[in-house]
Write the C-alpha cells for this entry.
Amino acid sequence: MPDPARLLRALIHPLRPRREASPTTDFLPGSESQGHVLWRLLSHSPQALFGVAVLALVAGTALTAGWWYPDDPLAMVAPPLLWPGEDPAFPLGSDSLGRDVAAGLVHGAKVSLTVGLVAAILSLGIGLTVGGLGGFFGGALDDALVRVTELFQTVPSFLFVIVLVAIGKPSVTVIVTAIGLASWPVIARLVRAEFRSLRETEFVLAARSLGYGPARLILREILPNALPPVIVTTSVLVATAILIESALSFLGMGDPNMVSWGSMIGDGRDQLRTAWFLTALPGGAILLTVLALNLVGDALNDRFNPRLRGLR
Amino acid sequence: MTAAQPLLAVENLNVRFTGPRGTHHAVKDLSFHLERGQTLAVVGESGSGKSTAALALLRLTAPGAAVGGRILFEGEDLLGLPLDAMRRRRGRDVSMIFQEPMTSLNPVHSVGAQIGEVLRLHERLSSAAARSRTLDLLDRVRIPEPGRRIDSYPHQLSGGQRQRVMIAMAVACRPRLLVADEPTTALDVATQEQILDLLDGLRRDLSMGLLLVTHDLGVVKDRADRVLVLHDGVKLEEGGTAALFERPHHPYTRCLLAASLHAGDTPHCTERRLPEIRIARDAAGTPSFALEVPPVRPRRAPPRTGPLLSVRDLRAEYRTAEGVFNAVDGVSFDIAPGETVGLVGPSGCGKSTLAKTVMRLVPASGGRILLDGTDLARLPDRALKPWRRRFQMVFQDPYGSLNPRHTVHDSLDAALVVHGVRERLDRAARVKAMLDRVGLPADSARRYPNEFSGGQRQRIGIARALLLKPSLVVCDEPVSALDVSVQAQILNLLAELKEEFNLAYLFISHDLAVVRHIADRVLEMKAGRLLA
C-alpha cells in the first residue's frame, strides 16, 4: 500500500492551484505556500471572505455553545414570548414555552453543523467508493454500480430521508445516516466521470507501465486529481444536508431531545403573526450558513476550474 | 491610397499581459511590413510572442492584454478603429486561420453552413447564392466531391480536410491579408505540404498578403518572400528568405537553422550529435546565443547475441460502434540488445497502439511479445510486474505524462518502492543520481511538474523510465511536442544514455528526419501493418 504520509500530501495538494500551460501565466515564476494560496483566494474575492467569516462564526458558536449556555436549551427558564431586548437576561427573547431563543440558536448551530458535516462526509465516503471503483474498473462492476446509483437517484431524496427516519427512531444518528444515504449519488456520478477520463491520461499509463497495482493507481495517481470538483460539490452538499435536517425538524420529525434551527422554526410558526422573530431568527441563521457554504463553494470552483481562472 | 503604401505596416507593436503576479511583455517594439501578394514568415519558438503578435493584428488578443503601437492596414490604423468597424473587417479584409482544425470548427453545424455564414454576414448573400459560392470555395481548396462534402459535419472530415474548410472560410470574402497561425503543425507531414501549397496558390490567385506564423524554419524555406525571427518578443532578424538561409546574421537564426532537422542531410547520432542552442543572459537580462555540438564518445560495439525483443504476428483491436477495428494487424519484428529501431508512419497507422501493446498497456488480441524468450502477451498482471523493470516507456506529451499532484521525487520514488527497493536513503540516492544524469538541477526533486518547461519535463519522463535500469525503452514520439532547439537537446540526451546504459530503443516518430538521425534501422507502418 502507498505510504500514508505521502498520500496525505498528495490529497492536500489539490488546494494548490493546478496551473494549465498558458502563455499568460507560464512566465510567472515559483511556487507558493499553502497558506499564501488560501490568503490570495480570500483576498481576491470578497464573497469568499464573507463566506469563510460566517462559517468561522457559526463553527465558533457551535464549539463554544456549552460555555455560553451550559444549561439545557430546551429548559423553560423565562416568561413565555419575551420580545428580543425586552429582558437583558434573554437578549433574543423567549418562545411560547419560555425557552431562551439565544440558547436555542447557539445549540442549534451545533446540531445543524454536525448534521451537515457528518452527512456530507458519509455521502462523500459512499460516493467516492462507488464512483471510484466503477470508474476505474469499468465493465460489469461499473454497470452494476451505475444501476445501484440510478436506483438511489430516482427516489426523491427528501421523501427517502422521511421514510428512513420514519422506519428508524428520530435520533441525530438516524437522521445523519438517512441524509448521507440519500445524497451520495451526486458524488458517485461525479467521481465516476472524473475517474473514467483520468484513467486514460498519460500519467496513469506511465504508472501502469511501471507496474503499479490498482490500489496505488486509484489512491495515489487518480484520486488526488479527481478531488477538486468533488470538494466543490461537497461544500454544497453540506448546505443541502443542513436544509434537509431543518425541513425534517420543521415537520416534527427531528430528534426531540435536540434543539435545531429547523425545530425552532417549526415550534415558532404558530406565533408567526404575533411573534415573528421566533421564525425569522433561526431562519436567518440557516439562510446565512447555507449562503456562506455556497459562496465558499463558488470560490473553490473558481480556483479549481482552469477555464474560469484566466478571466480574473 | 498611394502606390507606395504597403498592405500592412506594423509600427512598434507592444503587447503586455498583466496577471496577479506581474506583467509579461509578450511582444516588444515589433515593426515590420508586408506587401500585397507577398508572404512574410514569422518564425519563433514557443513563448516567442509570435502567436500573440498574430492575434494582435486582428485585435483578438485575450482580454486584459494591453496592445500598443500602430497596425496600419492599407494606411488605416486598426488599433484606432471602433470595435464594430474592426469586426466588419475581420473575415472580409483580414482573415485568420488557426493551428487546431479539430477545435476551430463548430461541431454542430455542417461545413457548408459555416462557410455560408461568413458570406451571408459580410456580403449579404441569399442562401442559394451563398451555397453556390460555398461549392466554388470547397472546389477551390480542393476538397473532393464538394457537392457531397458541403453537408458534412466536421467530425466526418479528416484533419487535413478540416483545415481546408477553415481556409475556405478564411478566404471566402477574398481578404487582402491572411494570417495563418501554425496552419500545419497539427497535421501529417504529407498533408502539411498540400496545405502549404494550397495557401501559396490562393495567395497568388487572390493576390493576398500572407503572414505565416510558424516554429518550423523548414516550412518557410521555399514559400516565404521574407522571414522575421522572433525570440522572447523581440525581433532578432528580418530579411529575404534566400539571403537569410544562406547568410544568417544573428547567432540565434544560425542556431535555429542548424538545429532543425531535414531528412537526407542529417548525420546519424553515432557520427555527429545535433547542435544545441545555449542562451546565456548577462546581468541586464540581455541574452547571448551560442551553438554547441556535444562530442560523440567512442561506442562500445554491442555484442550481437539473440534478439532482446521478438514481436510475432502481434494484433490489437478496438471495438467501435461500427465494429472491430484492427489497429495493429499482424506485426512481427526483432530488436537486438543495444539496437535502436525506428518506427515511422502517418497518424492513425497504429504506431502508438503498437507501442502500448508491446508495453502491455493495451491488451494484445493475438500474437506474441517475447522478451528474452518469455512471452509477455500471455502473462497475468501479477506475473508481469517483475518484468516491468526490463522495459519502460517515454511518452509523447511531457505535460500529460507526469502526475501534476506529485513532486518529481514522489513520482520517481514510488517506482522504486513498487519494485521492492526498501531502503529510503538508497531510493533517494538513486533518484538524485538519475535526475542529475538527465541534466536537471539539484533542487528539481522537491518541485511539482508545473514548475518545469516542456523540455525539462521530458527529462523527468526519461529519468523515470531509466530509473529501473531497463534494457528496452519504447519512445513514443518523445520530441514531437518540443521546440526545435529543445528537440536537439533531448535527442542528444537519448543518444548518450543509450550508449551509457546499453539501451535498446523502439523509437516512434512521424518525422523521418528525427528517426534517420537516431535509429539504426527504420520500420515503416501503414494501416496497422509493417511495410516490407
